[in-house]
Amino acid sequence: MWHEERHTRIRDLLRASGKVSVERIVTELGVSRETIRRDLVELADRGEIRRVHGGAVLADDEPPIDVRHATRVREKRAIARKVSSLVESGQTVFMDAGSTMTLVAEALSARSGLTIVTNSVDVATRFAARPDNEVRLLGGRFDARIGCTHGSATIAEIARYQAHLAILSPVGIDAAAGASSFELEEAEIARAMCANARSIMIAADHAKVGVRSRVAWCPADRIDVLVTDRRAEKSRAIAAIAGIVGAIEYA
What we know:
The protein is 39% helix and 24% strand. The protein is of the alpha/beta class and 251 residues long.
């Protein structure tokens, strides 16, 4: 991975989470601890980040969750529109939680005849406003930070459904690891949705392409469609992914 590409990925991680450990950056980028330490020193010298024990934070205060939804919005909206064009009326669709999924839900809410099964309050709210779409909000342990449910009760409810399609957004998508997330709870939800869906669609912007996060939940050869933005075409990782997933759609 090139020097400037690593810096971009580190910035993206910090914008998404506010604070990131060295261990997480090493896992996400797949490079050595020494390389990451040098990168953090350089970014800190520029005033872009502030180094703390075990990792780094943004130079400003840690952003609230609303700030995460403001990251790469143009790319995510384009991805959302492309996803919407690939979904057919009458389908039952799993959707997980996250900023990309919120925008996908917004785009899909203009469609009709869909049944959406989700653990995300944001996703459910956007569909509930339209009466000709059915919404099933999964129960379970509620995480107020993200606005979603997770845990064994949520997974048990997912198993009750046989969906036509699962639309999911990982932390990273990589040819070797497939789709992966940093949080175990998020990965377990995504894995359960994959297991109970006929087709799997991954929505991931260019910053997630080539990233391998901590918990893998869907092999690349199980992914039917990867929807990403045009900037991903410049990534060296996309060629390897293209040889494994069913199809890639660019927004």
